[in-house]
Amino acid sequence: GLWKQSCASLFAAGWVGWFVFQVALLDVDICGPSIPKMMGLEGEQVHQSGSGWSPVYVEENLGVMSVGFLLSSPDDAVIWRGPKKNGLIKQFLRDVDWGEIDYLIVDTPPGTSDEHLSIVQYLSAAHIDGAVIITTPQEVSLQDVRKEINFCHKVKLPIIGVVENMSGFICPKCKNESQIFPPTTGGAEKMCQNLNVSFLGKVPLDPQIGKSCDKGQSFLSEAPESPATTSYRNIIQRIQEYCDQRHFQEEKII
Fold first, then answer.
1. Number of structural domains in the chain
2. CB-CB neighbours of 157 under 10 Å
3. 174 C-beta neighbours (distance < 10 Å), count
């Protein structure tokens, strides 16, 4: 969903307290790499150094890697079978000089395919904190998300929680709320209750989010007073609290 740009930006901003986090954003959507455009990095290229590939940096503390940086044109089609995709993902994890980072955010395509299996397999020894699953309120989307939750359970990948994106639209003039994607079966919150999964929050539909992504600008900077910005901040805070608690429990076990 369109929330990934603001997610990475918020982590990198270190807006909880004064600490500035070192963040890496890895785009493993091999056939549809949208991260370069959304982060304002279209046209950038990956450089080789003695320590491996160097990520492309949005800020000093926000590095990005995507197959989009390896294409001669953003319109080039990547027509690869599974083994070639898996090989590139392994190379991104093994040969990219990420440096010391606090968070590695992995953007995956929808579904439960090669990319998801590869990430879970290659990072198994790193003890992944968990998956954040994004959905929209309507049942057609929730059907797919239930499959993704089942996938996480089968591969023993913790689920941090579910975010409901495009959750209602508040008219900036009349302030009335419209359900563009009606939650006919109760939406993500009801699904989380039924499946015993954490519900992280709702991000309302805001046209400025799409505009910011198309222009490669930070939505948080462009629309700091938007209800969506408040939702992003609350959701990211919950994710950080989950990760902090998980690391604390691991340290106690060690």
1. 1
2. 18
3. 7
**Residue 13 is which amino acid?**
A
pLDDT of residue 5: 52
Q: Which two tokens stand for residue 114?
A: 């090669």
pLDDT digits (tens, 9 = 90+) for 21-41: 899 999 999 998 999 999 999
Using pLDDT thresholds of 50, 70 and 90, give the confidence band for residue 73: confident
- Could you tell me if residue 20 is inside a domain? yes
Give 81's Cβ-side CA count (13 Å radius): 1
**Which residues partner with 104 through β-bridges?**
24
Burial (CB count within 10 angstroms: exposed 0-12, middle 13-18, buried 19+), residue 116: buried
Token representation of residue 55? 């990520």
Q: Which domain holds residue 159?
A: 4-244
Tokens 């990547």 map to which residue? 78
In tens, the pLDDT along 155-182 reads: 999 999 999 999 988 777 787 888 999 9
- The first and second tokens of residue 78, run together, are 């990547």
3-state SS, residue 20: coil
Distance CA 106, CA 119 (A): 9
Task: Give me the CATH number covering residue 51.
Answer: 3.40.50.300
d(CA 47, CA 155): 34
Buried-state track 197-218, b at ≥16 Cβ within 10 A, e below 16: bebbbbbbbbeebeebbeeebb
**What tokens does 48 get?**
């080789």
